């Protein structure tokens, strides 16, 4: 049996943080409530026990699980706060989604027909400034073409 021992570095920026054993990003301890709840529910952990980095390391044995944990803490600690800062909705109203999409049909038709459109201009500008490969990656461009 091979045992892997993880050495956890204390974050130099914040004393309550440690670095993730898988991606080396900062994670506050004790864990934020949503991350803790997720781990307790998914792995049937004792809610009274403190979740430590060695426990986390033992929970995620394969690379896929480790990646999912990193996605979880990145989402909760970076993406969600960034979205709240930008006033993005925390809950999406899927019931009203079709009517909001229908409101965009005239603008979408302008794009399809190659006519003057704010969104078309933004997309073409992205192709010119970023190049074809970068412009096609919507995740890097989404904040430039949003309507709130």
Please outline what is shown here.
This protein has 148 residues and is mainly α. It has helices at 33-43, 53-59, 63-85, 97-112, 118-130, 132-136, 138-141; strands at 17-19, 26-28. The protein has 2 domains: 17-85, no CATH class; 97-144, no CATH class.
Question: What would your notes on this structure say?
Answer:
Mean pLDDT is 80; it is low at 1-8. This protein has helices at residues 33-43, 53-59, 63-85, 97-112, 118-130, 132-136, 138-141; strands at residues 17-19, 26-28. It has seven helices and two strands. The N and C termini lie far apart (55 Å). A hairpin with a 6-residue loop joins strand 1 and strand 2 (26-28). Helices cover 53% and strands 4% of the residues. It is mainly alpha-helical. A two-stranded antiparallel ribbon has the order 1-2. It has two domains: 17-85, no CATH class; 97-144, no CATH class.
Task: Give the percentage of residues in beta strands.
Answer: under 5%
**What percentage of residues falls in helices of 4 or more residues?**
40-55%
Find the count of extended strands (DSSP E, 2+ residues). Answer: 2
Query: Any idea what the radius of gyration is?
Result: 21 Å
Structural class: mainly alpha
How would you summarize the topology of this molecule?
Layout: E1 17-19, E2 26-28, H1 33-43, H2 53-59, H3 63-85, H4 97-112, H5 118-130, H6 132-136, H7 138-141
Antiparallel strand pairs: 1-2
């Amino acid at each position: 049996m091979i045992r892997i021992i993880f050495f956890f570095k204390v974050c130099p920026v914040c004393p309550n943080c440690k670095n993730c054993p898988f991606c080396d990003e900062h994670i506050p301890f004790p864990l934020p409530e949503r991350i803790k709840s997720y781990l307790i529910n998914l792995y049937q952990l004792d809610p009274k026990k403190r979740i430590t980095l060695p426990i986390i390391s033992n929970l995620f044995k394969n690379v896929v699980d480790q990646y999912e944990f990193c996605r979880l803490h990145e989402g909760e600690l970076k993406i969600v706060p960034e979205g709240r800062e930008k006033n993005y909705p925390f809950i999406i109203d899927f019931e009203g989604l079709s009517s909001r999409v229908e409101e965009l049909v005239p603008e979408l038709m302008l794009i399809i027909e190659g006519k003057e459109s704010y969104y078309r201009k933004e997309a073409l500008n992205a192709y010119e400034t970023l190049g074809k490969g970068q412009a096609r990656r919507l995740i890097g461009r989404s904040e430039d073409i949003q309507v709130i």
